[in-house]
Amino acid sequence: MADLLQIGASGISVYQRALATVSNNIANLSTDGYSRQTTDIKQNQPIEVGSGYIGTGAYFDSVSRQYDGFLEASLQQATADLESEGAAAEYASRLLDILGDEKIGLTTALNQFFSAAKTLSTEPASSALRGSMLRDGEALATRFQSLAGQLSDLGEQSLSALEASVRSANALSTQLAEVNRQLQKQSSALVQPPELLDRRDQLLRDLSEYVQIRTSFDKRGLVTVSVSESTSKGKIVAGVQSSGLYVSPSSADQNQLEYRLQGRLGTETLTGIPSGKVSGYADFYEKTLVTVASRLNELARVLVTEVNDIQTTGLNGEGEQGEAFFSIEPIFDVERDASASDFQVDVSVVDPESYQIRSVSVTYDDNRDRWYADDVDGSVVFANQNGLLALDDISIQITGESTLGDRFELVPDVSAARGIRLSITDGLGIATSSMFRITPNAKNNGIFDPVASFSGIPKTDIGSVEFEEFGLGRPIEVGPSVINPLTVISAGQGEVEFNLNLNQGSGNVLQIMTTDGQHLIGSAADARVLEQAVKQSTRFSAGSNYSSEYLNTSGNDAYKNLDIFYGVSSEAASITQLLPLNSLFFEAPVGTNFAGGGLDFTLEPATTNDRLSLLSSRYIDTSIGTLSVSGGAIYIGDGTSSSVIASMSDFYDGNSQTLRIQFAENLASDFVTDELAGRISSLVTYSSGEDLTGINNPLKKRINGELFTSDFSVNLVESRDFISSELVAAGQIVKGQDQFVAKVTTRNVAYASGVGRVLIDAGDIRLNGVDLGELVVSDSGVLSTADVKEWLDDAKTGVAVSESNVVEIPSDLVQLNSGYGLTLNGVSVVSLATNTRSSFGSIDDLVSSINAVTDQSGVFASRNQLGDLQLQNLDLGGANIVLGGTAGLPGNVLGIGSKTYIGSLELELTSSTSESVVLELGADGKPADLNLLGLNTQIRMSGDIDEDLVVFLTGDGQSSLEAEALTSDDDVIDQLRGRQLEFYFDSENSYQIRDLVSNSVLANRTYQGELLLDYQGIDINLDNRAVIGDRFVVDGNNLGPNGSFDGQGNNSNILRFVDLESKSVLPGGQTISEGYLKFVGDVGNVATQSEIARDALTIVQQQAVEAKDRVSGVSLDKEAADLIRFQQAYQASAQVMQVATKLFDTVLQVR
What we know:
Elements: H1 2-27, E1 37-43, E2 47-49, E3 52-54, E4 58-65, H2 69-100, H3 107-122, H4 127-183, H5 194-208, E5 214-217, E6 223-226, E7 235-238, E8 241-249, E9 257-263, E10 266-270, H6 277-311, E11 314-315, E12 326-328, E13 331-335, E14 343-349, E15 360-365, E16 370-374, E17 380-382, E18 388-390, E19 394-400, E20 407-413, H7 416-419, E21 420-422, E22 433-434, E23 437-440, E24 451-454, E25 476-478, E26 487-489, E27 493-502, E28 509-514, E29 519-521, H8 527-536, E30 563-570, E31 573-574, E32 598-604, E33 611-614, E34 627-630, E35 633-637, E36 642-652, E37 657-663, H9 674-681, E38 684-687, E39 700-708, E40 715-723, H10 724-730, E41 740-745, E42 758-760, E43 765-767, E44 770-771, E45 775-776, H11 785-793, E46 800-804, E47 806-809, E48 823-824, E49 827-828, H12 843-852, H13 854-857, E50 859-863, E51 869-873, E52 881-884, E53 900-901, E54 904-911, E55 917-921, H14 927-932, E56 937-945, E57 949-954, E58 959-967, H15 972-977, E59 981-987, E60 990-995, E61 1000-1006, E62 1012-1015, E63 1018-1021, E64 1031-1035, H16 1052-1060, ...
Antiparallel strand pairs: 1-4, 2-3, 5-6, 6-7, 7-8, 8-9, 9-10, 11-22, 12-21, 13-20, 14-19, 15-16, 15-20, 16-17, 18-19, 23-64, 24-63, 25-58, 26-57, 27-56, 27-58, 28-29, 28-57, 30-55, 30-56, 31-41, 32-37, 32-39, 33-38, 34-35, 35-36, 36-37, 39-40, 41-54, 42-45, 43-44, 43-55, 46-54, 47-51, 48-49, ...
Helix pairs in contact: 1-18, 2-4, 2-5, 2-6, 2-17, 3-4, 3-16, 4-5, 4-6, 6-16, 6-17
């Protein structure tokens, strides 16, 4: 009975606790996060009785939470997905409302703008209609700005919601770390308080609303939470520590968000958050909103570009080229940092087109009471007393109070939609008229109403070398380039110059052509090659044909009256003539007879450019005793006539320049006196071939005057030193006799051999307008400077030709003991030091040895200031120097090539009218002809170059090329408008374009019946196919008086505005309106998809909740059933105890 009583007592105890557990479930029916609890009951150890076992009752083991980890994770994921789509759907719907609103969206504004253009096209001279279009244009710009502002505000709101969600997630992660701290008090999750575990799971569910999480648990129930796809990375909670999630726009790109974890768990950069509210807001901002803003900006840019292209290629109401209709200006956000003062900032951009994006920090200087900032170049600029801070790129006006520590930063926003502005302020500024109009001939039979429009000067694709590369200050090595041009000269230049230096053996020719095949500069010998290029190269206009009509022609007969030069020229420079000698007094012995003697004036040191002469007379004066200088002679007047008393000559020996006055022999013995010699010396002039009035380095010279008799028995010398700057300051300058000098100096003439060989044909080169004859190798068999000088002198142009030959040998090349020996013009050189031909004691010995045989070889040697060796002809002339070594040996002692060394030439023209020295190539002349003479070829073109020109290089070999260009002062379009272009259909299959102003044929093109023609950006739409004899003239709408505008009623350009409404200008062939509607539709699709996804995920989340509740939720029906069941079991256990008591009492009553 005792056992029976014990069993009943255990049952009462167990079911009493079971009833308590059920009661607790019922009490927490509405408690958030509560998980249903159950009582775990186990039987006591049975006892063995006889051959069997008898139970001993039951005992209470524990209370268990009804929890399923899989269902909990599913609910967390479903919650994160639902919240992500819900956040995206909310803001996508708001974005769609903005874009689709008639008062905010662009559709209405675009329609009104193009409608105003259409109305204006009916009456382009109407100021009222112009004003209406201007207002609608401003309204369109304002609508873009407003829409961009709305998008910006929506972006800020989504970022605010994002930040709030991040803060909530961080607060939950902190609470989770605290729960973990409490959980670590127990050694096993099985003995953890259910309430603490419920709180942990509820925090996880709440956290999953904001970020998708991945969880893992240790044996004590502590949770590790990750916000990435892997639990090993992106940990926001681990143990009792947590990190904060931070999401913000990137400093490098405000359109992209940066994600990072930072806190006690360290710092980690994340690529993103997979789902949850944070993900939803971030996806909307980064993908939907940024994409829409980008497409809106692109739409604004396209609108501005297209409208401005039309506007700037038309004429406004005053007949001037239209200025930009819209502009895009940066907007500046003012970040005030910690500034305490209430000041206002207004920013304007100096030049929106050239503005370079940069942030500007502006600081207040309390000591100067001025604001300051760094300029573009880094210099510090202070504001003026009115608070205007004028930088190179922006102007900042600051008003209001300022105090120490005030600072702000200007952050530019260059989004097109936000920065679009109306640029013109007057309706007259709208370019309604085309820049060009067409006047068809009244006798036409095919074309009656052609229409012209202008799309801008076309740009030709660059060649092998961009022309700007020539401006780097160094020659560029180039080779033949035919099908593809070498380079392209862009329209708008006023002058272009090339300098072509052919490499040895090269036959290169520079060819310059228009894009319509007109050959302007070059050689007709390559016409077939160039004709093929015109047909094949895309740089030429369709249907173009080659023509050499204007080849190398300059002036009024040239293409568009261009001035063209092809050859070598040297501009004349002013020469300063000094009067260095007032007079010289020689003190000759009484009775000395100087008849037949002379008076030498020797200048030292002297260069080849230094000159001594006598002051020339305007006419020969017959006055008694008056000296006159003319034609190389000195005259003296006797009252009725004049007679020659002396002649003049000069010579240069390499160191000094001598002017000799040779007195006539028939003079009276007492005619030449000290006084006469002094008068002659006062007429001596000196020039250096330069303008000495502004020279920085004054010249220091000495003149030695020597008066001598015919037999040199009397020889009187007087010297005078002078400094050029002192003479200039003293006014000792020849006045009233302007003198100029032009010089062309060649390199060494090229080697050519063959007696009688014609090197340059007659007429291939002109010298100062005179055709030169044939250049032929003389009987020497090798071309020399003497041959060239004679050839040039035969033209009798007045150009003085001098020749020289200097062979320079660097001292480090000389091989004194090489054994090679040395011959000069066939004469062997024997060492004075070693008395052999194979070895020399020193370079000075070599010099002396060469000079020892100068009389035989005609060559002398010297050393320059650098110590290098120089060889020259004894007469300082240009005769060839033949250099060799010992017969049979490969070299010579000088260490340079054994060959004939040919000299160089100097062409000089002194004049009073600044005449130039000009060597110009004739019709068949080539750069190789000038290269033979040691000259580069200059190609120069000047005038209105209002079209792109293509440059080819033909011929074999390589060359060095230099080029430069000067931009024209006149606008290219104005130049083009200044022409009158006649299109004449001269046959069924061809037409000609002629400039009536210059009477130049611009193009001869093939015609195949096309109705769209073009020339230099002028687009011409024909109403019918042209027939033979049809013609029309294109002008610049400027045939009014004095070339004034006379096209006020022309509506050709405003019709292009109208056509823009239906023009495909966006990717996919969309118009501007279609492009806007397209991305509005795309946003609608995003919103709809988000709403559908949200609705679907709502069901998924509800199902996850129901699945979780089936396990962990409290059901009243189930609890009521358990309550009855446990109550009955409790009562039955009590009845067992009652029976056991009765049985015990019965036993006690037995006697």
